[in-house]
User: What shape does this take?
Amino acid sequence: MISKKTRFALLIIEMQSDHKEMLIKFGRHLESVRKKQNLSLRKLALNCNIDHADVKKYENGEYNLTLISLTELAKGLDIPLKELMDF
Assistant: This one.
């Protein structure tokens, strides 16, 4: 029989895995949109005032974005936020 503590720990691990998958999926979408516009990481970073290293981490699914970062990325890509979030 599994203890409550163990079940809780397993639930947390499962949630983290789901979150990681979502970040990776978003990152692939972000990279695809950027490349369709022929933008380098540095150019996008300049367009939205976000460090290029952070943009790369977003594309790799390594960072959880804030609403402000999402808004800045949409501005930098010159697309509506809704389009950026449609992944």
In short: The first helix runs from residue 4 to 36. The two ends are 40 Å apart (CA to CA). The mean pLDDT is 91. DSSP finds five helices and no strands in the chain.
